[in-house]
Amino acid sequence: MPVEATKAESYLGAVGNPGQGSHFGRLRRLLPVLAVVSLACPVPSTASPQLTGTETPLTPLAQTKINNGLLTSNFPAVGHFFTNDGTCTATLIGCQTALTAAHCVCPEGSSGATCGTPNPANMLLFFQHSGAFAVSSVAVHPNWQPSVALGRHDFAVLHLASPVSGIQPAPLNLGSKPALGTAATLVGFGTTPTTPAGLKRFGTAVLSSCADPNSLALCYDFLDPVGAPGSDSTACPGDSGGPMFVAGTSAFLLAGVTSGGLGPGFADCTAPVEGVYSDVFTDRSWVLSQAGSDLAQPSCGDLPNAGSELAPFSSAAGALDAGHPTATFTYEVPVGTQTLDVFLNGELGAIDLNLYVKHGTVATPSNFDCKSEVRGLSIQICKIDNPASGTWYLTATRVAGAGAFQLTATSYKSAAAPCIRNGETACVQNDRFAVNVSWNNGNGSGQGHLMSFGGQRAEGPESAFYYFQSATNFEMGVKVLNACIPAFGNKFWVFISGLTDQGWQVTIRDSVTGAVKTYSNPAGHLSTTFADVAAFNCQ
């Protein structure tokens, strides 16, 4: 018997209905309105942002196990979606638009034809780098048919009541359906077999054929023996609506949305289980029609993109209980920071937390520059305008329960600041554009550095050359070309060439307009030369 037939019998027999399967589903929980606490502070010391823990042991990010995944505060565009009666995950695809699953917003047993228009009241989308945003309206794919098969048009578009700032929306996969064998990255705020929802995790999987078979879905197998954490993962309840990313030419592309799973391990997210995602490419026309001109934004609002040169962030994770009720961290705020965002998110239903933030001295419930004490929701938010530079103390305190948490601090500078040349930053086109490169691989990550040839800095009027680990090993070059004439579209062009299969991200900032563009290559993917002939306006 062919292998695929055996696989199909195993998965479909486990759920008893070859046409149906099960959604990972919402985690049901009544939700209060989230308050945002903001306090203006004096203005800003130079220091690279660093988050260090004191008082209580921290849980290293690489040890916490989407199941068999790793904790992360990366993927800023991925948010925790609080529905009217539960939680899911959603991805920002425009400055005021997010994509999630239809089954996250529709009544159980419904379809696209019977769901109606979901009531957005009390719906909330939380981002670790920007805060909480109310949902103003919801559109459900009219052809969603869960009774036929998982992953069939399981899409809903969320329109936010106000635009997000400081996050680059995730680009959609519009080129072609990802092929079998493609490596995929899964991200979500869901459960694991042993922990509640509420913390962001990521992991990878490899696309395989669907057991149904279902030509409209993207599938992967999570089988024994399970691989190393982060390298062999599966979605769980609460991850529904969350993204599946695949590598594009210059960035990760949103290829799928979590729909559900099949197999004996579905109920507790253990092997064996087949993960089923709705395919963005298949339903691109509907998504594009709902999102409209809000798609494909290089940045949002008046803040630079979180994770860029002008918006570095740091994060940590820990656990609190009756014996260890407080955790304090220090964070060095750089000179020129216009906004400091500190966000705390914990395990839902397990722990209730407060957040206190203070410049110069330890933050406590009676000594703070900003506090957030929202009850009933394991999320706390402090936004501080014009923060003083130097050491800030960030304190998480337990109010009730016990569980893990994540703490994320982001320093946003003005995007229109002058380019300052140093060992990591090149200034090209008469110092108008600041160019930075970061790298990552299986052994770590870091900043790219400008090369030196014969004692001369490898930077010209329009180009710069970088190394990663070894000063004699050229890894990539970046050029910004002035094409500011009508025949060439009145744009600055960007060319990037990499000679590596390491992961990298190039960030280019226009010091005149504040516009920021990022280009990336995932680790393990051979770099190619590419061009962006409409990168920046000439104004």
SSE layout and pairing:
Blueprint lengths: L2 H13 L6 E2 L13 E4 L10 E4 L15 E2 L6 E5 L4 E8 L2 E4 L23 E4 L3 E10 L15 E5 L22 E6 L12 E8 L8 E6 L20 E5 L4 E11 L10 E7 L4 H8 L21 E8 L5 E8 L3 E10 L4 E9 L10 E3 L6 E7 L4 E12 L1 E11 L12 E3 L4 E9 L2 E4 L1 E2 L1 E2 L2 E2 L5 E5 L6 E10 L7 E8 L4 E8 L5 E6 L8 E8 L2
Parallel strand pairs: 2-22
Antiparallel strand pairs: 1-15, 3-18, 4-12, 5-6, 5-8, 6-7, 7-10, 8-9, 9-10, 11-12, 11-14, 12-13, 13-16, 14-15, 15-16, 17-24, 18-23, 19-22, 19-24, 20-21, 20-23, 25-26, 26-27, 26-34, 28-31, 29-30, 31-32, 32-33, 33-36, 34-35
Molecular structure report:
The chain is mostly beta strands and 539 residues long. The chain has two helices and 36 strands. The strands form seven sheets. It has a six-stranded antiparallel beta barrel. Strands 5-6-7-10-9-8 form a six-stranded antiparallel barrel. Strands 2-22-19-24-17 form a five-stranded mixed beta sheet, with no helix packed on it. β14 and β15 (252-262) form a beta hairpin. The longest helix is centred in the N-terminal third of the chain and has 13 residues, at 3-15. Residues 1-21 and 27-65 have low confidence and may be disordered.
Task: Supply the key terms.
single chain; 539 residues; mainly beta; six-stranded antiparallel beta barrel; six-stranded antiparallel barrel; 36 strands; globular
How do the strands line up in the largest sheet?
11-12-13-16-15-14
Shape: globular
Number of strands: 36
| Structure annotation, total helices | 2
Sheet of most strands? 6 strands, antiparallel, barrel
Radius of gyration: 23 Å
Strand content: 35-45%
| Helical proportion, percent range | under 10%
- Sheet/helix structural class: mainly beta
Give the quaternary arrangement of the chains: single chain
Give the CA-CA distance, first to last residue.
Answer: 65 Å
Mean pLDDT: 84
Low-pLDDT regions: 1-21, 27-65
